[in-house]
## 1
Amino acid sequence: MRIENHSSHQIDYSQSLTFIFNNKTYKGYKGDTLASALVANDVLFFARSFKYGRKRGLMAAGVEEPNALISLEIGGRYTPNLKATEVMLYDGLSAVSSSNPNALDFRALIKPFHRFMPAGFYYKTFIKQKVWAKVENSLRALSGFSKAPTEKDVDVYDHVFHHAEVVVIGGGVAGISAALEVLNNSKTERVILVDEREHLGGELFNEFSTDDAASTWHKDSIEKLFSYMNEDNSRLTLFLRSAAYAWYDHNYIEVLETNATGESLVTEQGQAARKTIHKIRAKEVILATGAHERPMLFETNDLANIMLSQSVRRFLNEFGVISGKDIVLYGNNDSIYSTAIDLNNINIKCTVVDVRSSEIQSEIVTNVKGLGVKVFQGYAILKANGTHLVRSIELSQVALQGKEWNVSGGSQQLKCDLLATSGGFNPVVHLDCHCGAKTFYDEVSQSFLPQKERNNRQVCGSVAGVGAWQDAVGDAKNKAQLTLKSLGIVKKINQDKLSTNYLNFFNVSQFFTPVEILNRPKVFLDMQNDVTTLDVALSIREGYRSIEHIKRYTAMGFGTDQGKTGNINGIAVAAKFLGISMSEVGTTTFRPAYTGVDFGAMAGREIGDFFDPQRYTTINDCHVSSGAEFEVVGQWYRPWYYPINGEDIHQAVNRECLAARTSLGMMDASTLGKIDVQGSDAREFLSRVYTNAWMKLAPGSCRYGLMCNEKGMIIDDGVSTCINDNHFIMTTTTGGAASVYSALEMWLQTEWSNLDVHLNSVTDQYATIAVVGPNARNLMKVLCQDVDFDRQNFKFMQWRPGTVCGVDARIMRISFSGELAYEINIEANYGYYIWNQVALAGKKWNITPYGTESMHVLRAEKGYIIVGQDTDGSMTPMDVNMGWILAKDKPFSYIGRRSFSISALNSEERFQLVGLLTKDEQVVLPEGSHIIDNKSRSIGYVTSSYYSPILGRSIALAQLKGGLSKMSETVLVKIVQEKQGLKEIPCEVSSSVFYDINGEKVDGND
Amino acid sequence: MEMTSSKENFNPEFRSTFQSSLDRDGLLICQEDLECSELDDKAVIVLRTSKDHKKNIEVVNEYFGVDLPEALCISSGNNDIKCLWISPDEFWLVDNRQNKAGILDKIELLPKGMSMIDNSAAYGVLEFTGKKMYSLLARWMSYDLGGSLSSKKVVSTTLGQAPVIVFRDSEDKLLMLVRHSFSHYVAGLLKDSAKRI
């Protein structure tokens, strides 16, 4: 219910909001979380538990909440498994429970059998895979988590990088104090302050009603912080509603920010991302992440309206809501008395049950007694009663003898409708441990604290075990001073001495784990996974000793809350059953993410067109306007084919190939890698990286080269051009450009640093247009008149400088089709213009642009390999029938040469490149199909396969074991045909050259 | 159709790197406190130096009128030619295109161990101005532009997955060199992110 006229600190009562939860409409206010708004509307059941389907209510008020899992929105805005305590309310919000507590649940029907489903039930029952395969889907459907989204997320998510000298994580008293101390004592240092809540202040809001000093300190501090924020070029960056969920090495921290409304805002004017991941690199980190309260243990402690004491306070003080009128506060520390005072202030009846003996008489205990609140000291709750909702509790006297708790006397019942417990506080050490920091167990606070010394990091406030807010201010200043010293800003530091007079929640009693309670059923440790104390006991009986193993056997600490409230109690229970100390048990490993992170947020904007760079040539606009279909080669978008008049790919490719073979084709070859090689040792360098000879290649000439790695395997090929004796331009395959450049630089810098050679990537510098076909020479004569294109004066594998339509060009006479062909290389800025000029001038010969598919057909007809398609990293030049390209008498060896003397590489049984001709000329073999022997064993595979329009039949290249000695033999290729299934296709092994075997076409017809 | 290749008879269309991404005013981004435009008149010449550092300094100073910068720095010379430190033996000369031929003429004069290559067409140059330029670039760039890239500094880094060179020409202006083939990708990233600035 909402407390009328309550001065809650987060709620704007002037802004009413309407929302839907589990198909019912409710009202809330701006500033509410979904959880607080539901509490205000007397909704007590939020979801069902994961394993047993038990109805569950709220336990906590923040990120540590284990029960209140919901799915937000539907369709493209659907987000599963959010905590209702973390979802800020907005108008029109729609949510459902991850597992509806009000619907009939199959798991509720098997309630009598829960005792037969302890930890390890699923492992043991379904250990046989066949059984598991049958039940997996059904069981998963029963789990208490939300269903995975099925539609594309329509929200916008973003990533932003940040750098700061100091990052303060946590916006409570300690975080605010630390940030101010750094800002006040530095001039240029950048500070980032991160907090997961809507407002700075943390738990301090709980003190406002009883401590004027707290509210005054808060007001002054926030004003000071905002004065820094409002400065020009502010040094302070503030992230609210932002959870720091991972801390990696070198102080790299990731923070997930949810925007103010929880929605994406997309308008014509701009956008706001629904969630943003901030990637922060900091020199120093101050951790002020506070502490989470842990519950007390007793039977059926999972009933709805059994909550954490400080969470009840937070719901009351920040949101003005409470879910009961007759409240019992139960715990082992003074914090429950603070809650009692707050409840008393709004005239809500409460009773305190304190396991500590009546000998403890702190000031706050006395004050609460003075208010007339009934206090049971030296009592413990053994059991909570109620069907789904707590209705009463059973009390019994307890006493601490040494380190053991004794339960004595009979029990008495006490009615209540809300039970708030506090079993102490767990410092939020998660982030600190993400990158390797250790914890130590502190007997005084009964908690695991972060290790004290660590480079470039300080911890302050509750996370460091400082319980009073006044002390947290001093502690934070001290730690900030150490940070300033580490930054070299201050040399001498003043350390405030902390008082011991303030109320300190960390003064707790011994963990309350008497066996009389631990051995009862339904004492839940992990609410989300229904792990009980008996499950831990069972795991120990079955031989598990490490807490990591116990965790995995019981599933304790799994799920979206990652055991924030339950794990430390679980460790205490394990310690009890193992008979060792908490320190000896230790903690499980803390790993990112501290809290749930949406997949959408992880992806950010690296989706769709931004998932991988799309690289285009400067001629791309021409291809688009020609209606080209594209294929991705590496990251390049290359024209695949140019359909006209509704052609399919086969019709278009046939037309394009025939045009290139009979008249004139043109192709954008700009994507080929180009490496500028300069220096007096350039020739020597080429000789070392290619298998053939380069020392005598004359300026004005080009040469094909094959590049191998040191194992003798082909890694790339291409044509290199001799500009002058000290200058060459090497081309590489499109996909291999970066790796070849990198490999060559590696050789130059590590092995051949004495060579005078410089490499520069010039792939993007030049646009390259290939004109191909019998009329190529005629066209070039029109395009360029300062070059003599006579076949005798401009021979195959030569290049000439010239002017093409007014643009300086390098014209190479090289061919990847076997036809007469020229490649025009111009500055990339003129690529678009020259392509259009070539197309215009070529109309006379019906010039036809062709794409990569036709290029593949044309080169396959000639038996030219494509590295990476016809080779697979395990092919030598001999394997592809190119032994002719291995130089025999180079003065210096070349990469891979030594390996060619290995007998295995010269075996006749190696896979060798051959041609395949199907007996049925119209059958085109699928690439990748296996060639089989008479026992159906694979003896090779098809690497390239096309229909050749010029030959009027299919052709294929293949790697066949001992293929070169199997010419004219018939082999079988196993293929899968639609409808007909597997089929064996007889093929004749042939030369890999299918067309123009004597190479007569390359000079053209004239 | 008869054509001639003499340069005088042609008016070749020069298309800048980001031409297809610019708006009618020639801007990539134009909004409050943030502007991004292309400088399409820049030449980029790659200069590779020898192991003789002293000689390198002499040659660069004599031929190009600039000091050879030390690590991660830029130096400027006459006519505003800029020399960018890229790696220990690689420097980029950035100048107006009209001066390109004059620079490239020096190739023949370079001593053994030094080389030069024109890469002007390979790179587009973007200029960023306005208070929000860091916010924009921080969407895709992990480098600490605000803290580490002080005036006259240069860095080779990435914008998203695209390799780029960024340098601070003056206090309130950043220049970014982008490979032509990545320009469509880079322009897309910048325009998309600008919507959320």
## 2
Amino acid sequence: MTVSAKQTSGAASAAAPDTQVLDVSRLCVSVRAQGVLKPLVSDVSFQLRKGQTLALAGESGSGKSLTSLAIMGLLPPPAVQVTGGAIRLGDQDLTQINEATMRDIRGNRIAMIFQEPMTSLNPVLTIGTQLVEAIRAHDPVSRNEARSRALEALRAVRINQPEQRMMQYPHELSGGMRQRVMIAMALALEPEILIADEPTTALDVTVQREVLDLLRDLQAEHGTAILLITHDMGVVAEMADQVIVMKDGSVVEENDTKSLFAAPTHPYTQALLSAVPRMGDGVKPAKDAATDSVLRLDNLEVRFDIHGGLLGRVTHRVHAVEGVSLEINRGETFALVGESGCGKSTIARAIVGLAPYTGRIELKGQYLEGADAQERMSRCRNVQMVFQDPMAALDPRMRVGDLIAEPLVIHGIGTPAERATQIADLLHRVGLPAEAAQRYPHEFSGGQRQRICIARALSLKPDLIIADESVSALDVSVQAQVLDLLQSLKRELGIAYLFISHDMAVVENVADRVGVMYLGQIVEMGTGAQVFGNPQHPYTQRLIQAVPVPDPLHVRMSDVRLTGEVPSPVYPVGKSPRRVKLVNHGEGHLVSRSKPEVVE
Amino acid sequence: MVAYLLRRIVQSVLILLGVSFITFLLLYVLPADPVRQIAGRSATAQTVQNIREQLGLDQPFFVQYWRYLSGLVQGDMGRSYLQKTEVSTLIAARLPATLLLMGAGILCELAIGLSMGVVAALRRGQTSDQALMIASFVAVSAPQFVVSLLLLYVFAVQLGWFPIGGYGTASHVVLPALALGIMGSGWYSRMMRSSMIDVLRQDFIRTAHAKGLTRSRIILRHALPNAILPVIAMIGIDIGIFMGGLVVVESVFGWPGIGQLAWQAIQRVDIPIIMGVTLVTACAIVIGNLLADIIAPLIDPRIKLR
């Protein structure tokens, strides 16, 4: 592809209509089940112009991914197929051409990047091999020529030391790097269209920012048309020129991004936008200082040994949690935020006894250390967990009632009759009908399953619920409902939450107090208003800056590009990271003056 | 890598020690009396007693075991009771034939099994998939002596394509190798099928499609190396099962290998030979597993030898 019309500023400038590259008209996709065709996508039409970014937004099951797979000709055969409409690329109708012609188009004229960079690259082939084969699949160049073009592509996506990366395997690169490799692979042949299916959903927020910036820059350079598929309205607002909102396989609204966010017309779009958690919404006054402590961590440390050498001695240690102290009071939501690998989930595991630790954990004024097994078990009743994936957290072969009753059975509480009334009570409390007890988990939706998990956690009347990314896997509208449920339980029962999340906007909306974790240590801690309203530590500022804002008119404060990766928390035996010292910045707002670094 | 190998070798020695102890113990408690076999039915009580003392079989178990072990450390596997020859000589003479048959058998097993598995996975749910899976079921269930006799009858007796038995030329190897490999090919085809189906569902296969690669390249370069990993681990374990098959197949085809030697020795309670063959077999299994473990990281860079 040659860049004929010079684009001045890629995404922002709308190209002339004659540069239309893709025309999807009245596309229908159906699945054949037991001989009956069931429509999954119906009557979807849109055009994509050169240099334009079109977002297909919607929640799970809206058909946005199927639409993109239909364009690529990659619908899962043989059950799912295009049953109507046309997809025109130039003068070809992609629904009519044969597989060999389609293969020439894939990767060459339409490229695609996917949600999961961790699994989207072949683990047993080097980065170089995978890049080179993508180039040579469409361009009959020599291996050396392809190699130098691959290097060029890696440089274009700002990967340092590209020669070495070429020889590495995917597992040796971080998630952000892998997604860049995917982008390099997709753009190496300068396709006219790039389909990005949730390109940043699996990435940390700072990495997400880097990848989004990169996509925008490359688009401005090459004039690539981007079809962006996402559920994240923040990403939509930052990236898209035009938005199509989909629901249940149909388009509910289409508009340019600014108008859509300013004045959504369809009720579904309105509901979707209002459910999106926004930064700056939830700054609420700090609660009256209740000093009724539920959980106190004192100098908590979790390290995992790495064995090596001839005798398998410990050579390195992962310093997952490094001297964390915090306190959670009754009826309070304490949020731990940070990027993957910062140790926030490890803290949760240590509290419930799933990870070995040193330091002290105090539950309602009683230490866990030194207690015998039975004593620990009864104290652990006060802490329950709700996990990220409600499908995996519920045994598919047990009835919902039995699932909820299981903690009671384990702790030997109540007679079967008493338990039955309690189950009905709990189901009612989380907004599910009592009949749900007789059914199995797969009969419920994701949000309902998370409610079941919450009911199970409530069954032992805990003082503290640890919510480890409990709403991250849910669609925004469902997420909002589950968050509401958690809030009302807090008000009614005085439960405290340890809320672990990577989603800054959600945290700001629910947390009374916040701790920001970096490399196993808390670098900033204070009330939500303090941390989000007046972030002091550079890492906190960076995290908050990186969050995509669901407002197309939002102007990013600085265009300082984030670079660099979080260093590894693995140290040789005998070395450990420097402990940061938290200094009171006023009214209990604790900030460290340095970053945790290795000390020789 | 060196540290890993050293550790594995130490482990292997311990395994062989364990195998030798258990086998020796089993042969000791066995009601069959080797001396009766040597002396014959008409021998007097005195002769029997003499032979027993001569072979040291009147000693307590631990003394006998200790003697055997100290001989073994010096490279002495003992003498056959009946053939009056060094066990090591007997085994060394027959080992090449067995290794040849085993190699050919594994080749058959993998060639048939893996290709059946891959084809079935690619045709998943179609008639050819079902036919292949029925075939693999039959292969797994058919006893080896039945398969051997069937092959002999059809290809040697009726068609005359291959010799009925014996050892020497390439055509002698074909039928016994097939007889050995067919059962395993049934296992491998099922394993390969499910492994391949699993891999074909992975995201990176979708990426390969999205790059516009040809179907054959996707299957051979992307899917196969990933799908074959669990199979490699299986081959290491499989050698043990293979040895069982060798005893049967070598006897049917008159193949002069250690399987036949073992069969004769078991019938006559020739303890030194049974011990020798068992230990050689255990060695083969240990080496097979070690090889499988060393090959795996060559295919999958994520596997680290520790």
